[in-house]
## 1
Amino acid sequence: MTSPIVIGLEIHAQLKTRTKIFSPASALYCAEPNAQVREVDGGLPGALPSLNRAAVECAVQFGVAVGGRVNPRSEFARKNYFYPDLPKGYQISQYEYPVVSGGAIVVEDSKGGEKSVGLIRAHLEEDAGKLAHEGGASVADLNRAGVPLLEIVSEPHIFSAAEAAAYAKTVHALVRWLDICDGNMQEGSFRMDANISLRDKKGNPGVRCEIKNLNSFRFLEQALNYEAERQAEVLQSGGTVTQQTLLFDPARGETRPMRGKEDAEDYRYFPDPDLPPLLISEETIARIKESLPVLPRARRRMLAEKYGLNGYDAGLLCAARELADYFEKTLAELAPAKENLAAVAKTAANWILGDLASLMNRHSLSAKAAPVNAKALAGLLRAIGEGVISGKTAKAVLETMWKSGENAEAIIAREGLRQISDEGELQKLAEEIVRAHPAQAQEYRSGKEKLLAFFVGKIMSATKGKANPAQASAIIKKTLAD
Amino acid sequence: MKIGEDDIARLAKMTRLALTPAERAAAAKTLSDIVDMMAALKEADVADADPMAHVGLQAKAGLRLRGDKAQAGIPANELMANAPDARAGFFAVPKVIE
Amino acid sequence: MNGEITTAGAAGLLQMLREGKTTPADARAVFAERARELSRLNALVCEINDADGCGAEDGALFGVPVVHKDIFCQRGQKTTCASKMLANFVSPYDSAVVEKCRAAGMHCIARANMDEFAMGSSGENSAFGACKNPWDEARVSGGSSSGSAAAVAARIAPLATGTDTGGSIRQPAAFCGVCGIKPTYGRVSRWGLVAFASGFDQAGVFAASAEDCALGLSAIAGFDERDSTSLDVPGEDFSAGLEMPLRGLRIGKPKEFFDGGLDDGVAALLEDAFSEMQKAGAKIVEVSLPSARYAVAAYYILTCAEASSNLARYDGVRYGLRAENAEDIAALYEQSRAEGFGAEVKRRILAGAFVLSYGYRDAYYRRAMRARKRIAEEFARAFRECDIIAGPTTPTTAFAIGEISDPVQMYLQDIYTVPVSLAGLPAMSVPCGFAKKMPAGMQFIAPALEEKKLLAAAHQYQKQTDWHTRVPPLTPPIKDGGGETNNKKNIPPPVKDGGGTVNNKKNTPPPSLMGGDGGGKQ
């Protein structure tokens, strides 16, 4: 059965380079307008582009990672149109001969099934500047003009809005995994355009519409759902869909035609005479292939096999390369005995995906930037494992570690958090408590075993929580039985 | 080949050139002549020649790649000095509606 | 003395400077004065610069004045491309050519007139008015580097920079009776050269002699990483090979360049030049460039296409002319561009958009790319049979101002220069005599990167002839010829009897100032 909805995505990933694609101006974000503009970015007369090696290497990494063909010869072309944020009156892009052809992205659905979405191509191009609208005027800032983009074009083989979002998320994770894009969607480092059409009754694809500039996965899904419904309604009422470029209005949850955008604009592409063909040698491709990190799916498999993690945890750890690295570094620090490996790994995964992840989220920090590094976390986990502190105490210690940057041992010592594991001391305490509560002891002995928690609670409060709960429970039990 | 005034209007819109009706008429005539001159190529037997986008030496050498080392931007006062309408460091134009 | 300075040429002036016969400041003042006296030629577009723009003292050409075509960005200077669009544009940066000339010690005394954005073959398409031909002020100087050629011809400067896209150095050099060299595409950096057609534009120099061209070219050539089409080849001293003899040199004569179209007078001068070179031991071989007949069509398709894109940046947003009272952005674009560009520029933008537009791209643009390839192949084949090619630079000598108004007829003036441009080869125009009192040029063409062969052939030819020493009969005349004591070669021929020192008697130089009949010779 063919899907009634046909979707193709064009993703613009801003490449993580220091300088712009065709000029040595800084490509980093800068708040001061027009402060990072060189001759070519400003479209000055006589200015000429020179291609950034780092941008090419990013594209090759992507091409190799998706199993695409890195073309030995590709070409830059000019896309001609006028817009106040386009200083040269044309965008340098790739048209007939992109740097990468083919390849595929393997997308997982929520049920754990897999689908491979083919890529048509990935090509290098320059970003435009930013146009802001103030009062009666529009103002252009060209800092972003010339920032390198990799445009990743999928085959129209995506059949639902949810699938489109899953595909986009996978691409997003991959470009971050490769460290070729920071993936910051608020700042526009990862933008999506979606083409959508509905098939007619005979199964032929219909007229398609393009929704431009979607900067969140949620909006992507909403926009596609809305547009699929809108097109279906048009067709059901006997109308025809007109080919147009649309914008999504998140406030209204609707798409609307983009103003000033001519239908089927003639961009008059031609090879940019300022830029000879881009030749990429087999050696370069081989070198980059060699230096490529293990890719997410392989890494997930690796984590599961090596540490006995379940697929779900391994998958979550592989959401970002630095998270997976963090996990493995933590394990390396702990260096558990072989027979304990799986258990220690599971504990580490739980802490990383649980408490640590929530701290990272709360502070919008990545694993790499977290103030608690793998070594420090290993220290904390060791303290738990050795019974020095309880899991509950450990949560508080982690918070302190995050804030102060101290290691677990120092915090435990300073705050006197060490668990009371001295059997004699606990035994004495247990006997005192049992003696002080004869009625409850009697009830317990006559079968009301639930009361054990009561006695353990008493010990915990007497020790201000520093008793090892398991140990305390065992000792109480023994004392009551005596 | 005859280039009509409507063709000229289309091309002028594409290239953002305001033309008066008289200019449009004149352009239709001269452009027809120019395109006729260009059409001489139709007779040329070039089907087996590869399209040449770059001169041989450059095509063979390919693109040189620049190291990813940043340089300061053009000083704002110099960059903006030629701007017909500069506002707070931005280039201003009449409002554009998207 | 002044006359000696102005006619000494770059090499001669350098020698005078070395011998202490003049100083850089004095020489500069002499040329500046001459520039002022001859302002009516309209060869220059800006104030004469008496003080600034000095070159480096340790440069090989320290003290040699130069004029830059107004297409090379010069920091802090107006760089207008002779367009209303850029009439007030002050460049915030230097072009590579300006940098190199400064480093070589040259003093930039002024900026030269040109056809707007280098589009034209007559110099008439300038927002500042046509540049006049110093040999006959009723005639055009040729274009687009009109002012550069006229300035060197009128001895306003010993050296001038220019750009050649389809003949814009060679053709005005021929029309003005001076030497002009367009090097191999990629030999001189295009950084800061305002683009007309990026895949063809190439900077070069004008001078009275091949020897001076070699000096100028050595100064401006060289690899520049800012230009991705700049060829990464070692810098060369182009003066070093000038003494390579003509003896044994195989000079190709493309038969297609002598069919039809060529003016009889010019053809006769070329025959003389060929026999002159043959006398010196060169071997003339006939070669064929059968597809050259498609060159004008292919050239205009490709360059108009590139121009339509290159000139899109002139939109009135960041610099350049902005129409007043434009209500919205569409009006701002359309009116600014309508006001800022002249008729020829608009014509080429429209034609360029046409050949790239949907439905026509394959038939025009793509086909022209194939023709370009074919022409390049034919040159390569011809160079298997000869070392250099020689032929006419232009079909006729300079025509009258206003004489050619039909654009297509104007484009056909480039018939002998554009094939070379399509192939990206180095070529040079050298004065080869006078037809009806106007100078004619012979074009030498060499394989890529073989500029030395061109310059050597031209220099050796100039040792046999003295056409390049002729100075146009201008008022005021050059003061104080400087002396009968000088080498004969450096004496401007007396205005009335050029025949005296000439070894080619067939054509005499013009007898009087405004002697041109102004008539057509198409």
## 2
Amino acid sequence: MTLELLRIDDRLIHGQVVVGWGQPCEIGFFVLVDDAIAAAEWEQELYRMGTPPEMAIEFVTVDQAVQRLAQYQADPRVGMLLTGDIETMDRLTAASPGLRQVTIGGLHMKPGRVQRMRYVFLSPAEQALLQAMVARGLTVVAQDVPSAPVTSLDEVLRGDGTA
Amino acid sequence: MMMSERRAAVVAGHGRFAEGIISAVAQVMGEGHGLVAVTNADRTPEGIEQAIREALDRTGATVLFTDLPAGSCTFVGARLARSIPALHVVTGTSLPMLLSFVAGGTLEKVVEQAQAGIRVLGEGR
């Protein structure tokens, strides 16, 4: 499987992703799964502008991502798939039984969310969605950059934002 | 010596980048530089946009300096520039760049001086 990481990050493509993960992991392609951005040419251009030329980027809807998953996994390059929220990743993984692990890379402060880690804030509904993913057999962890420890969902949900 | 014209700009980036680089400007040029710091730390893209927009409104600045071309502040700035035609977003911000801006340089001059400020020194280069 060459999809190195399925990452939930409300900033999608940004410094941590392109530099923090992209360079040390030699990421060859990003798959950005977002129904709205898949239909917004200007937004796509913006993300292309911020991505180094050696890293390809593809913009797809959830349905398109489900259809193309086998193609991504057969790609000889190392890939990273990104969603901007838990709900999108939940839809994707529910329709793609072969996926095994989801990583929370960054979900920041919004009304209704409680801080669990330095870079993870969750609402009760989001917490329930993550627990539903685990109940379906997925491993859910948090890790913002490659050098950071991997934190299990149980540890995340016990957190108070100090870790 | 007083600066003849005080031009405002917002500096936005990761962690304490903006706060730190503005403190360096103040050390070189003194206070009254017109630069305001915004961090992306703990903020969603919507939160970053709100913070930058508030800083632009408060200062009347039409220039946004950001740290990283692929950074969230740069993406937010590029989106803001669609709705604020007067806004210029300059990324890859360095100390020579901000010093040139505070000294009254045009954006072309600012970029030129920043590029000229990149050098590799020493025998091992």
